[in-house]
Amino acid sequence: MIKKLVVWCFALVSGWNMGQSRRLGMVALSIVTVLMLTLPLNAQNTGVRSLTSELRGVWLTNIDSDVLFERDRLKKSLEGLAELNFNTVYPAVWNWGYTLYPSKVAAKVIGRLVDPTPGLQRRDMLKEIVTEGHKKGLTVIPWFEFGFMAPADSLLAKNRPQWLTSRSDGTRIVKEGTHERVWLSPFRPDVQQFIQDLIVEIVKNYDIDGIQFDDHFGLPSELGYDAYTVALYKKEHRGQGPSKNPKDPEWVSWRANKITGFMKRVFTAIKANKKNCLVSVAPNPQRFSYEYFLADWQKWERMGIIEDLVLQIYRNDLNVFISELEYPEVKAAQSHIPVSIGILSGLKNRSVPMSQIQTQVQKVRDRNFAGVSFFFYETLWNMSQEKPLGRQQGFQKIFPTTTAYPNLLTGWKP
User: Fold this and answer.
1) Are the C-beta atoms of residues 379 and 347 closer than 8 Å to each other?
2) pLDDT tens across 257-316, in order?
3) Helix 354-366 / helix 318-325 crossing angle, nearest 10 deg
4) Tally of CB atoms within 10 A around 67
């Protein structure tokens, strides 16, 4: 009965303009609440799987999405997620060579306080998400999406060319689809300080629940041949330079270990400023992360410098999807920290059917993972070949009741 009422609410609200939607939505929500309170407890919980905690997350980005660019739209989106029993949001805060929140650190180094997109001016998007998200019971974990990466034509790249790293032939541009990217050298002390200062600024100034990194906190393995890094390598190898083969195991290991050292430093800095701020990482499977991005999350997890892992398993083939869930390093991490699975809910030009999403969620639950997170917000129901109401009903079936975020710092157990 409750399920039918909530679906009716969505149908009712979707047919009216914004002002009418808000008024009707409040009325509908009030009706559901009253009926919920009058139903016996066993009727409310019929058929619901008992979960003491489960990550139910979604990434909010400014790529192919405008959810962050307007205050009322952002607020409404957070309310909608909470109503569908999501409990965690990962808003991007560092993208395209800019911060998406007002940053004194960025202003000093880049020359811009915040990303120049009109919708981000004269407001603090991150503060809005923290305030509104917490009101709705959402865990807020800012996502440091671009890591050491920046657009080739960005102010950051133009203002700090000495910070950029290169291939052995001196070229710097790395293509991501049609976009030209460059990478800051994660081995330079001044680059490390800048990135750490951005992170600490967020941790100190916002009431966030954690902060998240991904593979971009590493480096494409073809890079690392800038003058500073080569000189550092020679200093530690009796004058011998690195292999011209970027996949040489020793050269890969040396760079990965340097990045691990910086990750440890960042973890320490975060904890020094806010000990209850969770350090989360959302990488690709270990083999890819290590070989292609020098991001050795398996070592980070073993060292205890990450407290939450959301593994990106963006696969259509169900057998491949399942096989990725069962690697030894994944199971080892599961016994130590909350490990959740990132599921692709769609891309701009790639719709993922709800049936696939529901099947993958069930396979994750069958293996007792801590939860799931979806990439990305717009493709939950706004950007799909399936109708929005049908998609919302699908997520309602996945998350029929509320549950807590699985937090290592508040007693989560494997």
Assistant:
1) yes
2) 999 999 999 999 999 999 999 999 999 999 999 999 999 999 999 999 999 999 999 999
3) 30
4) 21
Residues 29 and 136 in one domain: no
Instruction: For residue 41, give its domain range.
Output: 1-46
Per-residue model confidence (pLDDT) at position 149: 98
Helix (H, G, I), strand (E, B) or coil at 94: strand
Reduced to 3 states (helix: H, G, I; strand: E, B; else coil), residue 238 is coil
Produce one character per residue of 349-375: b if its CB has 16 or more CB atoms within 10 Å, e if not. eeebebebbeebbebbbeeebbbbbbb
Whether 140 and 234 map to the same domain: the answer is yes
pLDDT at 51: 79
Q: Band of the pLDDT at 8, cuts 50, 70, 90?
A: very low
Residue 22 and residue 24: Cα distance in Å, rounded? 6
Q: Is residue 51 part of a domain?
A: no
Single-letter amino acid, residue 186: P
**Distance of alpha carbon 402 from alpha carbon 6, whole angstroms:** 14
Residue count (the chain): 414
Cα dihedral 253→259→262→266 (10° resolution): -130
Number of domains in the chain: 2
* Spatial separation of the C-alpha atoms in residues 168 and 10, rounded to whole Å: 56
Global confidence as pTM: 0.88
Show the 3-state SS of 208-224: CCEEEEEHHHCCCCCCC
CA distance 177 to 180: 8
* Torsion of Cα atoms, 28 then 29 then 35 then 38, to 10°: -150
